[in-house]
Specification:
The chain is α/β, with parallel strands linked by helices and 343 residues long. The protein has three domains: 88 residues, Ubiquitin-like (UB roll) (Roll); 95 residues, Translation factors (Elongation Factor Tu (Ef-tu), domain 3, Beta Barrel); 126 residues, Rossmann fold, CATH 3.40.50.80. Helices cover 18% and strands 31% of the residues. It contains six helices and 19 strands. The strands form four sheets. A six-stranded antiparallel sheet has the order 11-10-13-8-9-12. The model has no long low-confidence stretch (mean pLDDT 94). The structure holds flavin-adenine dinucleotide (FAD). The site of flavin-adenine dinucleotide has 25 residues, from strand 11, strand 12 and helix 2.
Length: 343
Protein backbone atom coordinates (compact mmCIF):
# COMPACT_ATOMS: atom_id res chain seq x y z
CA UNK A 1 0.00 0.00 0.00
CA UNK A 2 1.18 3.52 -0.78
CA UNK A 3 1.39 5.88 2.18
CA UNK A 4 1.65 9.67 2.38
CA UNK A 5 4.43 11.45 4.26
CA UNK A 6 4.00 15.02 5.45
CA UNK A 7 7.08 16.93 6.62
CA UNK A 8 7.19 19.79 9.13
CA UNK A 9 8.04 22.63 9.20
CA UNK A 10 8.64 22.70 5.41
CA UNK A 11 5.15 21.24 4.73
CA UNK A 12 6.06 18.90 1.91
CA UNK A 13 3.88 15.92 0.97
CA UNK A 14 5.07 12.87 -0.88
CA UNK A 15 3.97 9.31 -1.55
CA UNK A 16 5.98 6.27 -0.50
CA UNK A 17 5.53 3.04 -2.44
CA UNK A 18 5.26 -0.36 -0.73
CA UNK A 19 8.64 -1.48 0.67
CA UNK A 20 10.24 1.84 -0.23
CA UNK A 21 12.14 3.81 2.40
CA UNK A 22 11.14 7.38 3.20
CA UNK A 23 14.48 8.67 1.88
CA UNK A 24 14.28 6.70 -1.39
CA UNK A 25 10.79 8.06 -2.02
CA UNK A 26 11.83 11.63 -1.26
CA UNK A 27 14.90 11.46 -3.54
CA UNK A 28 12.84 9.85 -6.31
CA UNK A 29 10.43 12.78 -6.16
CA UNK A 30 13.12 15.47 -6.07
CA UNK A 31 12.81 16.37 -2.39
CA UNK A 32 15.81 17.06 -0.19
CA UNK A 33 15.89 15.28 3.15
CA UNK A 34 19.08 15.04 5.22
CA UNK A 35 21.21 11.94 4.58
CA UNK A 36 24.73 10.57 4.40
CA UNK A 37 25.67 6.91 3.95
CA UNK A 38 22.18 5.55 3.05
CA UNK A 39 23.13 2.33 4.83
CA UNK A 40 21.73 3.01 8.31
CA UNK A 41 25.14 3.67 9.84
CA UNK A 42 26.01 7.35 9.93
CA UNK A 43 22.84 8.71 11.54
CA UNK A 44 22.70 11.80 9.31
CA UNK A 45 19.21 11.01 7.95
CA UNK A 46 17.47 11.74 11.22
CA UNK A 47 13.84 12.83 11.50
CA UNK A 48 11.35 12.78 14.37
CA UNK A 49 8.24 10.69 13.92
CA UNK A 50 5.38 12.88 15.10
CA UNK A 51 2.55 10.63 13.90
CA UNK A 52 2.25 7.17 12.36
CA UNK A 53 4.16 3.89 12.37
CA UNK A 54 7.24 2.64 10.60
CA UNK A 55 9.29 -0.53 10.36
CA UNK A 56 12.95 -0.82 9.43
CA UNK A 57 14.29 -2.29 6.19
CA UNK A 58 17.20 -3.90 8.10
CA UNK A 59 17.12 -5.62 11.48
CA UNK A 60 17.33 -2.67 13.94
CA UNK A 61 19.92 -4.65 15.96
CA UNK A 62 22.29 -4.20 13.00
CA UNK A 63 21.63 -0.48 12.47
CA UNK A 64 24.60 1.38 13.97
CA UNK A 65 22.91 4.66 13.14
CA UNK A 66 20.26 4.04 15.81
CA UNK A 67 22.98 4.55 18.45
CA UNK A 68 23.65 7.99 16.99
CA UNK A 69 20.10 9.34 17.24
CA UNK A 70 17.62 9.90 20.06
CA UNK A 71 15.37 6.86 19.56
CA UNK A 72 13.58 7.35 22.92
CA UNK A 73 12.54 10.80 21.76
CA UNK A 74 10.93 9.44 18.57
CA UNK A 75 13.85 9.97 16.19
CA UNK A 76 14.07 7.59 13.22
CA UNK A 77 16.50 6.84 10.38
CA UNK A 78 14.84 8.02 7.17
CA UNK A 79 17.14 5.91 4.94
CA UNK A 80 15.89 2.70 6.57
CA UNK A 81 12.34 3.51 7.70
CA UNK A 82 9.41 2.11 5.70
CA UNK A 83 5.99 3.60 6.50
CA UNK A 84 3.28 1.35 7.86
CA UNK A 85 0.73 4.18 7.87
CA UNK A 86 0.57 7.80 6.73
CA UNK A 87 3.25 9.76 8.60
CA UNK A 88 4.03 13.21 9.93
CA UNK A 89 7.75 13.80 10.33
CA UNK A 90 9.59 16.72 11.90
CA UNK A 91 12.77 17.08 9.91
CA UNK A 92 15.33 19.70 9.04
CA UNK A 93 15.25 19.87 5.24
CA UNK A 94 18.63 21.09 3.96
CA UNK A 95 18.81 23.71 1.27
CA UNK A 96 17.80 22.31 -2.06
CA UNK A 97 20.62 21.09 -4.27
CA UNK A 98 20.46 22.33 -7.85
CA UNK A 99 18.19 20.11 -9.92
CA UNK A 100 20.45 17.17 -10.54
CA UNK A 101 19.00 13.88 -11.73
CA UNK A 102 20.11 10.68 -10.07
CA UNK A 103 21.00 8.30 -12.92
CA UNK A 104 22.07 4.70 -13.38
CA UNK A 105 24.80 4.53 -16.01
CA UNK A 106 27.33 2.07 -17.40
CA UNK A 107 30.93 3.25 -17.35
CA UNK A 108 34.26 2.01 -18.65
CA UNK A 109 37.44 1.76 -16.59
CA UNK A 110 40.04 4.01 -18.22
CA UNK A 111 42.67 4.30 -15.48
CA UNK A 112 43.90 2.12 -12.64
CA UNK A 113 46.99 3.18 -10.76
CA UNK A 114 48.25 2.72 -7.23
CA UNK A 115 48.49 5.92 -5.17
CA UNK A 116 49.73 3.94 -2.14
CA UNK A 117 50.00 0.24 -1.24
CA UNK A 118 46.34 0.21 -0.25
CA UNK A 119 44.89 3.08 -2.30
CA UNK A 120 43.99 2.78 -5.98
CA UNK A 121 43.12 5.59 -8.33
CA UNK A 122 40.18 4.34 -10.36
CA UNK A 123 39.20 6.42 -13.39
CA UNK A 124 36.01 5.71 -15.34
CA UNK A 125 34.23 7.28 -18.28
CA UNK A 126 30.52 7.21 -19.05
CA UNK A 127 29.29 6.75 -22.64
CA UNK A 128 29.85 9.86 -24.76
CA UNK A 129 26.17 10.42 -25.47
CA UNK A 130 25.34 10.51 -21.74
CA UNK A 131 25.62 13.43 -19.34
CA UNK A 132 26.45 13.02 -15.67
CA UNK A 133 25.99 16.15 -13.56
CA UNK A 134 27.18 16.26 -9.96
CA UNK A 135 28.45 18.68 -7.36
CA UNK A 136 32.08 18.51 -6.31
CA UNK A 137 32.23 16.38 -3.15
CA UNK A 138 29.27 14.10 -3.92
CA UNK A 139 29.51 10.32 -4.25
CA UNK A 140 28.22 7.51 -6.45
CA UNK A 141 27.29 3.91 -5.77
CA UNK A 142 28.99 1.17 -7.76
CA UNK A 143 26.29 -1.43 -8.46
CA UNK A 144 27.46 -5.01 -7.94
CA UNK A 145 26.04 -7.95 -9.89
CA UNK A 146 24.25 -9.42 -6.86
CA UNK A 147 22.33 -6.21 -6.17
CA UNK A 148 24.69 -4.88 -3.49
CA UNK A 149 26.14 -1.39 -3.85
CA UNK A 150 29.30 0.34 -2.67
CA UNK A 151 29.66 4.09 -2.18
CA UNK A 152 32.72 6.05 -3.38
CA UNK A 153 33.28 9.79 -3.47
CA UNK A 154 34.19 11.56 -6.67
CA UNK A 155 37.75 12.81 -6.30
CA UNK A 156 37.66 15.38 -9.08
CA UNK A 157 35.27 18.22 -9.81
CA UNK A 158 32.76 18.05 -12.68
CA UNK A 159 34.64 17.85 -15.98
CA UNK A 160 33.92 18.99 -19.48
CA UNK A 161 31.89 16.48 -21.49
CA UNK A 162 33.67 13.19 -21.85
CA UNK A 163 35.93 13.79 -18.86
CA UNK A 164 37.07 11.10 -16.48
CA UNK A 165 35.42 10.45 -13.12
CA UNK A 166 38.16 9.85 -10.55
CA UNK A 167 37.88 7.76 -7.37
CA UNK A 168 40.37 6.88 -4.61
CA UNK A 169 39.63 3.35 -3.46
CA UNK A 170 41.10 2.06 -0.20
CA UNK A 171 41.54 -1.70 -0.01
CA UNK A 172 39.40 -3.27 2.72
CA UNK A 173 40.69 -6.69 3.82
CA UNK A 174 38.20 -9.19 2.36
CA UNK A 175 36.16 -6.35 0.93
CA UNK A 176 34.10 -7.57 -2.00
CA UNK A 177 34.40 -4.53 -4.25
CA UNK A 178 37.75 -3.07 -3.24
CA UNK A 179 39.52 -6.45 -3.48
CA UNK A 180 38.08 -6.78 -6.99
CA UNK A 181 39.42 -3.32 -7.87
CA UNK A 182 42.90 -4.28 -6.64
CA UNK A 183 43.12 -7.86 -7.87
CA UNK A 184 40.94 -8.36 -10.93
CA UNK A 185 39.81 -5.11 -12.46
CA UNK A 186 41.37 -4.12 -15.77
CA UNK A 187 41.19 -1.11 -18.05
CA UNK A 188 38.16 -1.31 -20.38
CA UNK A 189 36.09 -3.29 -17.85
CA UNK A 190 32.49 -2.14 -17.73
CA UNK A 191 30.98 -1.13 -14.38
CA UNK A 192 27.63 0.34 -13.41
CA UNK A 193 27.18 3.40 -11.23
CA UNK A 194 24.22 5.22 -9.75
CA UNK A 195 24.38 8.81 -8.52
CA UNK A 196 25.20 11.42 -7.68
CA UNK A 197 24.30 11.23 -3.99
CA UNK A 198 25.13 13.14 -0.87
CA UNK A 199 25.09 16.54 0.73
CA UNK A 200 28.83 17.05 1.04
CA UNK A 201 29.40 19.94 -1.36
CA UNK A 202 30.66 23.50 -1.05
CA UNK A 203 28.15 26.02 0.32
CA UNK A 204 29.14 28.76 -2.10
CA UNK A 205 26.87 31.47 -0.75
CA UNK A 206 28.59 31.33 2.66
CA UNK A 207 31.35 33.85 3.31
CA UNK A 208 32.79 32.05 6.30
CA UNK A 209 36.37 30.80 6.43
CA UNK A 210 36.60 27.06 5.85
CA UNK A 211 38.19 24.28 7.89
CA UNK A 212 38.51 20.93 6.18
CA UNK A 213 39.57 17.64 7.67
CA UNK A 214 40.11 14.34 5.93
CA UNK A 215 41.05 10.93 7.22
CA UNK A 216 42.78 8.64 4.68
CA UNK A 217 40.79 8.49 1.43
CA UNK A 218 38.49 11.15 2.89
CA UNK A 219 40.97 13.23 0.90
CA UNK A 220 39.05 12.33 -2.30
CA UNK A 221 35.95 14.52 -1.87
CA UNK A 222 38.03 17.27 -0.24
CA UNK A 223 40.25 17.29 -3.35
CA UNK A 224 37.16 17.54 -5.52
CA UNK A 225 35.83 20.50 -3.52
CA UNK A 226 39.17 22.34 -3.35
CA UNK A 227 39.83 21.87 -7.07
CA UNK A 228 36.32 23.12 -7.79
CA UNK A 229 36.82 26.18 -5.55
CA UNK A 230 40.07 26.98 -7.37
CA UNK A 231 38.35 26.68 -10.76
CA UNK A 232 35.68 29.09 -9.51
CA UNK A 233 38.32 31.43 -8.08
CA UNK A 234 36.72 31.31 -4.63
CA UNK A 235 39.08 33.13 -2.27
CA UNK A 236 37.68 32.22 1.15
CA UNK A 237 40.45 31.08 3.53
CA UNK A 238 40.73 27.28 3.60
CA UNK A 239 42.74 25.42 6.23
CA UNK A 240 42.96 21.74 5.30
CA UNK A 241 44.07 19.10 7.82
CA UNK A 242 44.85 15.61 6.52
CA UNK A 243 45.03 12.82 9.09
CA UNK A 244 46.68 9.50 8.34
CA UNK A 245 48.65 6.81 10.13
CA UNK A 246 52.06 7.20 8.49
CA UNK A 247 53.57 9.42 5.81
CA UNK A 248 52.99 6.84 3.06
CA UNK A 249 49.23 7.19 3.70
CA UNK A 250 49.32 10.87 2.68
CA UNK A 251 49.16 9.53 -0.85
CA UNK A 252 48.91 12.82 -2.77
CA UNK A 253 50.78 15.09 -0.44
CA UNK A 254 52.61 16.94 -3.21
CA UNK A 255 49.23 18.02 -4.56
CA UNK A 256 48.16 19.47 -1.20
CA UNK A 257 51.53 21.23 -0.96
CA UNK A 258 51.09 22.67 -4.44
CA UNK A 259 47.75 24.23 -3.40
CA UNK A 260 49.54 26.05 -0.59
CA UNK A 261 52.43 27.09 -2.81
CA UNK A 262 50.19 28.55 -5.50
CA UNK A 263 47.30 29.97 -3.45
CA UNK A 264 47.86 32.20 -0.44
CA UNK A 265 44.35 31.56 0.94
CA UNK A 266 45.04 27.81 1.42
CA UNK A 267 46.85 26.29 4.42
CA UNK A 268 47.67 22.60 4.82
CA UNK A 269 48.52 20.68 8.00
CA UNK A 270 49.25 16.95 7.86
CA UNK A 271 48.75 15.02 11.10
CA UNK A 272 50.08 11.49 11.63
CA UNK A 273 48.73 9.16 14.30
CA UNK A 274 51.40 6.42 13.97
CA UNK A 275 54.43 7.82 12.10
CA UNK A 276 57.03 5.19 11.18
CA UNK A 277 60.64 5.48 12.22
CA UNK A 278 61.64 5.84 8.59
CA UNK A 279 59.30 8.86 8.27
CA UNK A 280 61.62 10.95 10.51
CA UNK A 281 58.40 12.88 11.11
CA UNK A 282 58.86 16.38 12.51
CA UNK A 283 55.23 17.44 12.00
CA UNK A 284 52.04 17.16 14.02
CA UNK A 285 51.07 13.86 15.62
CA UNK A 286 47.88 12.50 17.18
CA UNK A 287 44.33 12.52 15.92
CA UNK A 288 43.48 15.04 13.25
CA UNK A 289 40.45 16.57 15.02
CA UNK A 290 42.59 17.08 18.13
CA UNK A 291 45.09 19.13 16.13
CA UNK A 292 42.22 21.43 15.15
CA UNK A 293 41.09 21.67 18.77
CA UNK A 294 44.63 22.70 19.68
CA UNK A 295 44.86 25.31 16.92
CA UNK A 296 41.39 26.86 17.08
CA UNK A 297 39.87 28.19 20.30
CA UNK A 298 36.63 29.29 18.66
CA UNK A 299 34.90 27.74 15.63
CA UNK A 300 31.66 29.69 15.89
CA UNK A 301 32.40 31.63 12.68
CA UNK A 302 33.63 28.68 10.58
CA UNK A 303 32.22 26.25 8.03
CA UNK A 304 33.68 22.81 8.69
CA UNK A 305 33.89 20.04 6.07
CA UNK A 306 34.88 16.57 7.31
CA UNK A 307 35.29 13.30 5.41
CA UNK A 308 36.67 9.93 6.36
CA UNK A 309 36.28 7.21 8.98
CA UNK A 310 33.10 7.46 11.09
CA UNK A 311 35.10 7.77 14.32
CA UNK A 312 36.92 10.84 12.98
CA UNK A 313 33.75 12.48 11.66
CA UNK A 314 31.80 11.84 14.87
CA UNK A 315 34.62 12.97 17.18
CA UNK A 316 35.09 16.15 15.16
CA UNK A 317 31.39 16.96 15.12
CA UNK A 318 30.88 16.36 18.81
CA UNK A 319 33.97 18.17 20.11
CA UNK A 320 33.82 21.11 17.70
CA UNK A 321 30.20 21.79 18.68
CA UNK A 322 30.57 21.15 22.42
CA UNK A 323 34.02 22.62 23.01
CA UNK A 324 34.54 25.20 20.29
CA UNK A 325 31.05 26.60 19.71
CA UNK A 326 30.68 25.38 16.11
CA UNK A 327 27.13 25.83 14.82
CA UNK A 328 25.86 22.32 13.91
CA UNK A 329 24.31 23.78 10.75
CA UNK A 330 27.81 24.63 9.55
CA UNK A 331 29.24 21.11 9.89
CA UNK A 332 29.16 19.19 6.60
CA UNK A 333 30.38 15.61 6.45
CA UNK A 334 30.45 12.28 4.71
CA UNK A 335 31.22 9.44 7.03
CA UNK A 336 32.89 6.56 5.17
CA UNK A 337 30.86 3.78 6.73
CA UNK A 338 31.12 0.22 5.47
CA UNK A 339 28.27 -0.90 3.26
CA UNK A 340 25.49 -2.57 5.25
CA UNK A 341 25.66 -6.37 5.44
CA UNK A 342 23.83 -8.18 2.66
CA UNK A 343 20.26 -8.80 3.81
C1 LIG B 1 29.20 8.25 1.36
C2 LIG B 1 30.40 7.33 1.35
C3 LIG B 1 31.50 7.65 0.57
C4 LIG B 1 32.61 6.81 0.56
N1 LIG B 1 33.69 7.15 -0.20
C5 LIG B 1 34.80 6.39 -0.17
C6 LIG B 1 35.96 6.76 -0.93
O1 LIG B 1 35.98 7.76 -1.66
N2 LIG B 1 37.05 5.97 -0.85
C7 LIG B 1 37.08 4.84 -0.05
O2 LIG B 1 38.12 4.17 -0.01
N3 LIG B 1 35.99 4.46 0.67
C8 LIG B 1 34.85 5.20 0.62
N4 LIG B 1 33.76 4.81 1.34
C9 LIG B 1 33.79 3.56 2.11
C10 LIG B 1 33.45 2.35 1.23
O3 LIG B 1 32.20 2.52 0.61
C11 LIG B 1 33.41 1.07 2.10
O4 LIG B 1 34.68 0.86 2.65
C12 LIG B 1 32.92 -0.15 1.33
O5 LIG B 1 32.14 -0.93 2.21
C13 LIG B 1 34.05 -1.00 0.74
O6 LIG B 1 33.48 -2.01 -0.02
P1 LIG B 1 34.05 -3.51 -0.09
O7 LIG B 1 33.05 -4.27 -0.90
O8 LIG B 1 35.45 -3.52 -0.54
O9 LIG B 1 34.07 -3.99 1.38
P2 LIG B 1 32.85 -4.66 2.16
O10 LIG B 1 32.55 -5.96 1.52
O11 LIG B 1 31.76 -3.68 2.28
O12 LIG B 1 33.51 -4.79 3.57
C14 LIG B 1 33.81 -5.97 4.13
C15 LIG B 1 33.35 -6.04 5.57
O13 LIG B 1 34.51 -6.27 6.33
C16 LIG B 1 34.41 -5.68 7.59
N5 LIG B 1 35.64 -4.92 7.79
C17 LIG B 1 36.70 -4.94 7.01
N6 LIG B 1 37.68 -4.15 7.47
C18 LIG B 1 37.23 -3.61 8.59
C19 LIG B 1 37.76 -2.71 9.53
N7 LIG B 1 38.97 -2.16 9.39
N8 LIG B 1 36.97 -2.33 10.56
C20 LIG B 1 35.76 -2.86 10.70
N9 LIG B 1 35.20 -3.73 9.85
C21 LIG B 1 35.92 -4.11 8.81
C22 LIG B 1 33.16 -4.85 7.60
O14 LIG B 1 32.18 -5.53 8.36
C23 LIG B 1 32.72 -4.79 6.17
O15 LIG B 1 31.33 -4.83 6.09
C24 LIG B 1 32.63 5.62 1.35
C25 LIG B 1 31.50 5.30 2.12
C26 LIG B 1 30.41 6.14 2.13
C27 LIG B 1 29.20 5.75 2.96
Amino acid sequence: MTYQVYTRPAEHHFAVNPNETILEAALRQGLTLPYGCRGGSCGACVGKLAEGNIRYLTDPEKLKGLDRIDVKNGEILLCQAIPESDLIIDVHEPERIADIDIKKLPCRVVQLGKLADDVMLLGVKIPEKERFAFLAGQYVDFLLRDGQRRSFSLANPPQENGGMLEFHVRLIPNGIFTAHVFNQMKEKDILRIEGPFGQFYLREQSERPILMLAGGTGFAPIKSVIEYSLKQNIQRPIHFYWGARAQKDLYLESLAESWVKNHSHIQYTPVLSEPLEEDHWQGRTGFVHEAILEDYADLSEYDVYACGPPIMVNSAKQTFIEKRGLDAEHFFADSFDFAPPKS
